[in-house]
């Protein structure tokens, strides 16, 4: 029999757990919620710092967000964090792309290339501004 424990804590301080306790972390909206606070940048910094601390080397942080790379990559690439980031962009349900456009030719299961700065390439056309962005962040060895 598997027992589950319901824990409630602040994602910015999870000192209850030891360093490198997890193989993966899934975030569906937590960072987005923090980005709505009055101290958004500092809260995001603390959260990403905690996620980085808790992940084992090679661990995965999956961030599912409405934040495009211009507003999320700076938080992910903060000092002390070393990620290999792969981005997927999923259009909202019911969105129909224009036939022959760059996004209609790309499978949603195909990663979207990022520039050295972690931005969308200039030639990439984002047709649906309400897309979901899925960042697969692999924690690299120190």
Automatic annotation (TrEMBL):
Keywords: Methyltransferase, Transferase. GO terms for molecular function: S-adenosylmethionine-dependent methyltransferase activity. One of its GO terms (biological process) is methylation. SUPFAM superfamilies: S-adenosyl-L-methionine-dependent methyltransferases (SSF53335). InterPro entries: Lys/N-term_MeTrsfase_sf, Methyltransf_11, SAM-dependent_MTases_sf. It holds the Pfam family Methyltransf_11. Residues 7-62 form the Methyltransferase type domain. Belongs to the methyltransferase superfamily. This is Methyltransferase type 11 domain-containing protein.
